[in-house]
Amino acid sequence: MTNIVNIPESLLPEDGRFGSGPSKIRPAQVEALERGGRTLLGTSHRQAPVKALVASIREGLSSFFRLPDGYEIALGNGGASAFWDMACASLISRKAAFGTYGSFSTKFSASAAGAPFLEEPVLFKGEPGTYRLPELTEGVDAYAWAHNETSTGVSAPVRRIPGSEEQDAIVLVDGTSAAGALPVDVSQTDAYYFSPQKAFGSDGGLWLAVLSPRAIARAEAVEHSARLEGARRWVPPFLSLTSALANARKDQTLNTPSVATLVMLENQVRWLNENGGMDWATARCAKSASILYGWAERSDYAKPFVTDSDARSHSVVTIDLDDAVSAQQVVGALRENGIVDTAGYRKLGRNQLRVGVFPSVEPADVEAFTQCVDYVVEHL
């Protein structure tokens, strides 16, 4: 049973939401939803008002990611988990190589392993708390890894695998807990995909992808071959990337989307761009992360889980606690005081705190969080 610790109000953050996804939604987004509720919610997503909303999102993300010539923004329902299956159906021709170093980077590889029309994937495994990129492998036509491993708080480089272009292989990077929080050059990828419930402060159930001309051509070729007589491959309409892109070009989704999610996402993308875009957002996240890592390094009971400082995430920070301090009790006491969603990833099974420091989180609230943890540990 958690001991009751009443944290002095003077120490508490203004907003106690530190989730790694779903993440904090700003009051202005809720206000936008209230306004949209009178004009957009409950209306057709095929009509001009909602299509204008989608157009604003696509234009805003194009600006935020500084899209190279020929790159396009696509979107659809189902979240990043659906995009894994879509990539298996529409982007991997025969065989993929994966960097796996946590729960989420492993899940995509499991989807590829289960696809009956694909060859067994090649796995390059890293231990939790580290990352490992896939290496150039004969016969591989797609390389995949996660920019940020949400389960462990590790960020990995985003760069093309040397020699992969000569193979005509494409690069697929999961940006779900990185996009909007970590710097990225999308020209180093062919599909940089993510869900909006992290840095983009919206609800889940939607995927977005930055697609290169090579990815678009690959999807067209794969789906064409699947339609040939005798083909073993099946591309369900829901997992057709060409259909998703065709609809995105019309500023809509293949299936009915959550308009509320679109409203909040559009407001967040505009807010990020108005404040300075990627440069501003990533600097803000880096500041918040440095507060947490610096505090942990000075602490006599806490330390950063990721030992390589260059691999430490600036969006999801993981902090190990000494065995004498129960993370479960600390998390419980924080929750009783309105500071929520700071537990470590359950499958990792460590005595750990995990703190989302996405752009919506105020760095001053991160500083207050560290003081509250110190107070709780002292008084438990």
General description of the model:
This protein has two domains: 15-25 and 277-378, Aspartate Aminotransferase, domain 1 (Alpha-Beta Complex), CATH 3.90.1150.10; 27-273, 3-Layer(aba) Sandwich (Aspartate Aminotransferase, domain 2), CATH 3.40.640. Helix 1 packs across helix 7 and helix 2 packs parallel to helix 7. The chain has helices at residues 27-39, 48-64, 79-90, 103-114, 213-226, 241-248, 259-275, 277-298, 327-336, 363-379, and strands at 72-77, 96-100, 122-125, 142-146, 148-149, 154-155, 170-174, 191-194, 206-211, 302-304, 316-321, 352-356. The mean pLDDT is 96. The strands form three sheets. It has a seven-stranded mixed sheet, with helices on both faces. Strands 10-11-12 form a three-stranded antiparallel sheet. It has 380 residues and is an alpha/beta fold. It is globular and about 70 Å long. It is built from ten helices and twelve strands.
